[in-house]
């Protein structure tokens, strides 16, 4: 199992580096399609179920079936995958992860939150910057490059949205995403 975790972690890092380099070279452009937000989230959650079961995490998803947005499916799936992976990684056994989405006037607000270890306030100002991308170990020693959040920010901005975080150390984190409808 240790070899699998190491190979998986290395693969994810290489995938993140490739995506980030394509963004920096201007090779990544969003292809917008109308998509059901709940289905998009459910597809990403399905892939992460085993990780959540292993850590005995409670997952709650609160998204209406009639919520749709025009967005780049691959980019937004990557964002959700990164944020959900982080929520799982930084939440101790028996904790809680929840995902909510609602429509505001001309935008959709998506929240991915956890009851995990939180983020020290000293890291928050530069969390989405190249200089601020400092990998931390998860609650079970999981490795992290810190590039995932940088990619999330780039992809959300390419989709015309914004991303921010609120976190209290030892209480958990909430990542907010706003994308146009």
Written overview of the protein:
The chain is of the alpha+beta class and 181 residues long. It has a single domain (2-180), classed as 2-Layer Sandwich (Heat Shock Protein 90), CATH 3.30.565.10. Helices cover 39% and strands 26% of the residues. It contains four helices and seven strands, in the order H-E-H-E-E-H-E-E-H-E-E. The chain has helices at 2-24, 37-54, 73-89, 147-158; strands at 32-36, 58-62, 68-72, 96-103, 107-114, 162-168, 172-180. The strands form two sheets. The chain has a five-stranded mixed beta sheet, covered by helices on one side. Strand 6 (162-168) and strand 7 (172-180) form a beta hairpin. Helix 2 (37-54) packs parallel to helix 3 (73-89). The longest helix is centred in the N-terminal third of the chain and has 23 residues, at 2-24. 30% of the residues are buried. The mean pLDDT is 86.
